Amino acid sequence: MSESEDDGQPRNSKEPVENAWSMKIPTFKEADNPNGMAEESSFATLFPKYREKYLKEVWPLVEQSLVDHHLKAELDLMEGSMVVKTTRKTWDPYIIIKARDMIKLMARSVPFEQAKRVLQDETGCDIIKIGNLVHKKDKFVKRRQRLIGPNGATLKSIELLTDCYVLVQGNTVSALGPYKGLQQVRDIVLETMNNVHPIYNIKALMIKRELMSDPKLANEDWSRFLPKFKNKNISKRKQPKNKKTKKEYTPFPPAQPESKIDKQLATGEYFLNREQKQAKKDQERSAKQVEAAKKQSEKRNKDFVPPTEEPTTSKRKADDDKVDVSALKAKLVKANKKRKS
After folding, report:
1. What is the mean pLDDT for each group of 10 consecutive residues in the chain (341 residues)?
2. What is the structure's pLDDT at 12?
3. Which among 216, 196, 194 is positioned nearest to 204, based on CA atoms?
4. Domain presence at residue 128
5. Whole-angstrom Cα distance, residue 223 to residue 208?
6. 217 lies in the same domain as 131
7. pLDDT given for residue 117 in this prediction
8. Is residue 257 part of a domain?
9. Res 322: pLDDT
10. What are the backbone angles phi and psi of residue 52, rounded to the nearest 5°?
């Protein structure tokens, strides 16, 4: 109940609610429904073969927990199914939905100690299907493992921040806890399967928890404090080597190609008689033969053509051009004097 209702002044139900999470929902008691249920309701769910042994062991505890709410439970090991039913003493109309959620969670490998918490009023459950979110199996396995983290560290941090029990099993993620926490768990799981690392959402939840404790920032925008994720993935599709450039669009159709007769009329060949046409063809053939023979002879004589040699200039010759004559004469005179002496 809200504060205004406690004061004896009931609020108008049509008024907008600023924060629905802060509203207190009144508890539903047996006195509110003294006549009980008009019809019997039942729900059944199947379970896999590997859960048979565990369910057989804990089934007496399941029956005992449901007896407190005036419900019946049946376990069929031949068909592999669990059934919950209402009785004539059942007074809570929604408890059968809670019992249905409990057996669903137990069929998906959630232990009974956790699954029985769904029967409480402030606790709900959410089964998130992730099998169809990623098409490639290897990508699906990697992203599911990213949600669990090394040694289950990421999953444990999600549980601590949302106050929910989370179990990743096959193609589904089972969550159990308060309704606000279930909404946060669903957002994290779906974004993780859409290639957003869960650490971004975990950081955001940690920052929000710190900001909630500060009364000064209660009415301010928190978006400037939260981390922003930027997708840096570039498309790895192979680009074609030779890209075709698109022609400019014109509403007019392309020009009609010339026919063989049109080409003959343009060259004047159409008006020639048979002998003249044959003579022209022979002339063209002989011209082609001459050209082909010329190319063939050039190709054969190519190996016998000597390569062009570059003129070599010796250093000695260049040095001789720069000889100092006066120095050479002096050297010879000196050599003659030594001989005479």
Report:
1. 44 67 80 83 92 93 91 91 91 91 92 92 91 90 92 92 91 92 93 89 87 76 73 66 84 88 86 87 93 91 82 59 76 82 68
2. 53
3. 196
4. yes
5. 10
6. yes
7. 92
8. no
9. 66
10. -60, -45
Give the total number of structural domains in the chain.
Answer: 2
Among the three residues 121, 154, 173, which one is the final residue of a domain in this structure? 121
Measuring CA to CA, how many Å separate 286 from each of 163, 280, 289, 292? 96, 10, 5, 10
User: What pLDDT score does 233 carry?
Assistant: 61
Q: What is the CA radius of gyration of the chain?
A: 47
Q: Which two tokens stand for residue 294?
A: 């010329």
**DSSP letter for each residue of 215-270:** GGGTTS--TTTS------PPP-PPPPSSPPPPPPP-SSPPPPPP-HHHHHHHHTGG
| Other Cβ atoms within 10 Å of 154 Cβ, number | 20
Examine residue 244 and state whether it is found in any structural domain, yes or no. Answer: no
Domain limits at 148? Answer: 122-228
Task: Report how far apart, in Å, the C-alpha atoms of 136 and of each of 29, 88, 139, 166, 233 are.
Answer: 50, 50, 5, 24, 17
Residue 2: per-residue pLDDT: 41
Length of the chain in terms of residues written: 341
8 A C-beta contact, residue 192 and residue 146: yes
**Is residue 79 one of the residues assigned to a domain?**
yes
Considering the domain architecture, whether residues 137 and 101 belong to the same structural domain is answered as no
The token pair that represents 287 in the structure block:
């011209």
Q: Which amino acid, residue 40? A: E
Structure tokens at 275: 């002998």
